[in-house]
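Q: My labmate handed me this sequence with no annotations at all. I'd like to see what the chain might look like in three dimensions before we decide whether it's worth expressing. Could you predict it?
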Amino acid sequence: MFAATTYAARRHALAQQVGSGLILLLGNTDSPMNYADNIYPFRQDSSFLYCFGLDLPGLAGLIDIDADRVTLFGNDGDLDSIVWTGPLASLAEQGQAVAVSHTQPLAQLEAVLAQARTAGRAIHYLPPYRAEQRLWLSELLGQPVGALDAGVSEPLTQAMIALRSIKSAEEIAQMENALEVAARMHTLALRASKPGVREQEVVGLMSGLAQSQGRQLAYPIIFSRDGHVLHNHGHGYTLQAGDLVVNDAGAESPLHYASDITRTIPVGGRFDERQRVVYQAVLDAQLAAIAAMQPGISYREVHDHAARVLVAGVAPLALFKASAEEVVHSGAYALLFPHGLGHHIGLDVHDMEALGEDRVGYGEGVVRSQDFGRRSLRLGKPLRAGNVVTVEPGAYFIPALIERWEAEDKFRGLINYASFKACQEFGGIRIEDDVLVTAEGARVLGTPIAKTVAEVEALGV
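A: Here is what I predict for the chain of 461 residues:
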């Protein structure tokens, strides 16, 4: 954990922004896979972690803003639980570790909240996202499950987003710790991706490396020669020379801060000429986006800038019939680049999106576009110093999308469908790094991971 004073300061800042009432933050509980004692690996709620830092199930925190009092609710282990889990710190000891001096048994939380409701006090809570959490919250508040969303506290949600969006130096250190493991995972994968190797073997090597360091994966690994399927979690293909493999993999730090890195691997160690053109266009788009990032610029502007560089870079393939400016302005570029440039990253790989994607990524005069491609941009609003975001442009040849757009006669004057169809067995390319917005611009976090053509080919032979 961070120092106890860190969590105290975060709770104080949260209370100051919300103003009055009670702030209820529920930790996560164990979740069964197929029966009660066979559980999924535990992952604590990230907002609870941010404010209380305790990585154990069955806890809740209550911040009484008006009384300036914080209470940790939970249970001490009994003899039966100790037999199975071993000794655990008492609830009081857990509270002391995060600067909370008041603790109560978990069973008393419902009565405390009922008393507050009777007194007409506001109870602020965040959007629930797990079924177990929704049921627990329903019981605690005496509200039907279906009524919970309407009662979500907008002041608390916006305050949590504002605080978690700006990363401290100690948070950046955690993210770079996670990136060190991710760098090793990606280098291992690049060297292991040889003709005749099954995708699952490489995924297993990366997963095992993370586990050997005591880390959880930040998300299920995407490792596929079908890189045009953006979130492809199938790993059944045997690699062949000439394949391109999109490898999107990251690990968590000891305190659960995420890394999210993508590299594209030429199986056999060399890009062919067409692959080289597209790869360099994607890389140039990523580098241009990072160079453009600074406080105050909207991430939607950065997205469009990256798209223009990408479209200009693939000019040798004659995919489009007009200037990059016209192609991007029209939206025709999304046939090649159908997703957003990136998202916040921190305690969640898509940081804070449980609080509402539009709340996190939009506002401040920026409204989500409904255009294909831009509507998938998770972050559009102006950047601020202290934000950490992913920068992940890509180029994909998606046969079903090409066929659909051609049948609908979309952008006929801008898109050369014959050239797209000539590439429909290509697959996809994505390059992604985690980037800190600074007062002066931006800095790529972590140990550099091979991404130029020369660097990738040197490691892949």
